């Protein structure tokens, strides 16, 4: 369907709850960043005519003149976590129709077990509402987010976050979230990691950022640090980690199953 001011977009066909699976799609193509050139263009040329036309209908924000297969791949390729030696990017025709938001109501996850890219609702969504995903790290200030989107996808974001006239407080929180997220990886003491994890969760709540993958990252550090310190926070992190994993990956994902085991230890 047409999204106002954005071209084509994806819209909810039914009411959705947080954690509902919106889409499960096998990639049409897999490719390396360094391989989005001649070999991948040849692979596109070898597709059946109907699939080739679908690929050519996707947005190309990379080529200067006429659309190219390489430009389409550069614009629509999505990173996924694959075993070493396998391609780290995929092209999914349906997922490529999802537009960006700086507070997306959906997020995507690669399911290695079934080889599918899956999209899950991050918050309650009503029928007819546009479904959006993040194209960039959301923990950046407004100006940098806009710059990244213009440089890589040639559009300016006008989502509810970017349209807010008073974004200074949001910028402050998002910059701090990025700083703390980077800092937690550098800290080696469990006490420091636990403190940062708690601060991150508090800030995500204040910012009301729907994407639960960010909270899940904080839960991983918080839970491990709580266990190491034998702190009473471990059950809370385990329960929250499970809830975030369910909303990021669904119930069958390997990571969700790990959080289910961790949570069961405290039930």
Automatic annotation (TrEMBL):
PROSITE patterns from the UniProt entry: SET
Organism: Effrenium voratum
UniProt-listed Gene3D superfamilies: SET domain (2.170.270.10)
Location of the SET domain: 1-136
Protein's name according to its UniProt entry: SET domain-containing protein
Pfam families for this protein: SET
């Amino acid at each position: 369907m047409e999204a106002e001011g954005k071209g084509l977009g994806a819209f909810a066909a039914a009411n959705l709850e947080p954690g509902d699976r919106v889409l499960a799609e096998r990639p049409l193509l897999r490719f390396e960043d360094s391989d989005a050139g001649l070999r991948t263009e040849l692979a596109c040329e070898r597709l059946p005519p109907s699939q080739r036309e679908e690929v050519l209908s996707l947005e190309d924000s990379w080529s200067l003149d006429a659309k190219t297969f390489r430009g389409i791949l550069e614009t629509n390729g999505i990173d996924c976590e694959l075993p070493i030696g396998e391609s780290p990017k995929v092209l999914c025709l349906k997922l490529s129709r999802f537009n960006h938001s700086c507070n997306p109501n959906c997020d995507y996850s690669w399911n290695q077990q079934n080889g599918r890219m899956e999209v899950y609702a991050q918050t309650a969504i009503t029928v007819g509402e546009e479904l959006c995903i993040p194209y960039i790290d959301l923990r950046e200030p407004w100006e940098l987010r806009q710059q990244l989107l213009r440089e890589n996808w040639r559009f300016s974001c006008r989502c509810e976050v970017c349209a807010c006239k008073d974004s200074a407080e949001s910028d402050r929180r998002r910059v701090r979230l990025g700083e703390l997220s980077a800092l937690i990886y550098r800290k080696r003491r469990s006490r420091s990691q636990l403190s940062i994890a708690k601060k991150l969760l508090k800030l995500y709540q204040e910012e009301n950022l729907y994407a639960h993958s960010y909270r899940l990252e904080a839960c991983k550090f918080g839970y491990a640090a709580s266990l190491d310190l034998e702190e009473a926070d471990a059950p809370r992190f385990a329960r929250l980690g499970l809830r975030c994993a369910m909303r990021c990956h669904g119930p069958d994902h390997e990571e969700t199953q790990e959080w289910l085991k961790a949570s069961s230890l405290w039930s």
